[in-house]
């Protein structure tokens, strides 16, 4: 009985010693990290845009609409229920316009002057074209921009070239 207590305390002592060594090691590893690098990284970090809960709900609704579109196409609703399909197309157009308007509000919060200047110089420019310019300024890749705007990458290339012509730029948009 006495040897089992002795064995228990020896194991406990070994575990505590190992824990102390691990804690000491981690403490010195963290202490050795230069504080300046960590502070600079956090100070330089600025999110691309701030997203509120309402914005997330709006974008989630847009994703739901995209899934509904896919279901309607796969189910061949156009030929089975033409009256319903026409009404759906009307509502869908309204919802997409709302989605793009909400997205422009989110992305354009700190770009009011830029957007106003753009609209002043080119009053014919559309909401989607403004969004395209903002997303390109933020260095989004073509695939991401296409997904955000609900278009294919090929369509995006065409829109970029049309926008370049509309803005009268010779360099890449």
**SS field, number of helical segments:** 9
Average pLDDT, rounded to a whole number, is 76
Termini gap: 83 Å
Order of helices and strands: HHHHHHHHH
- The CATH topology of the domain at 111-173 is what? Arc Repressor Mutant, subunit A
**Helical coverage, percent range:** over 70%
Record field, number of beta strands = 0
Can you name the CATH architecture of the domain at 111-173? Orthogonal Bundle
Q: In CATH's first tier, which class of the domain at 111-173 applies?
A: Mainly Alpha
Indicate the overall shape.
elongated
- Percent strand equals under 5%
- Low-confidence parts: none
Largest sheet: none
Structural class of the helices, strands and pairings? mainly alpha
User: What integer value in Å does the Rg equal?
Assistant: 28 Å
Question: What's this model, at a glance?
Answer:
With 173 residues, this protein is mainly α. The chain contains nine helices and no strands.
């Amino acid at each position: 009985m006495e040897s089992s207590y002795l064995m228990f305390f020896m194991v406990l002592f070994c575990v505590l010693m190992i824990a102390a060594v691990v804690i000491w090691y981690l403490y010195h590893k963290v202490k050795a990290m230069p504080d300046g690098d960590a502070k600079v990284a956090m100070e330089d970090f600025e999110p691309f845009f701030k997203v509120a809960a309402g914005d997330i709900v709006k974008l989630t609704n847009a994703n739901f609409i995209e899934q509904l579109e896919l279901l309607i196409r796969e189910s061949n609703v156009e030929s089975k229920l033409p009256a319903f399909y026409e009404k759906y197309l009307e509502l869908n157009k309204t919802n997409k316009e709302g989605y793009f308007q909400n997205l422009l509000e989110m992305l354009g919060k700190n770009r009011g002057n830029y957007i106003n200047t753009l609209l002043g110089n080119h009053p014919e420019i559309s909401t989607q074209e403004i969004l395209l310019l903002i997303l390109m300024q933020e260095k989004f890749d073509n695939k991401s921009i296409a997904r955000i705007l609900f278009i294919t990458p090929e369509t995006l290339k065409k829109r970029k070239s049309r926008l370049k012509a509309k803005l009268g730029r010779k360099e890449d948009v």
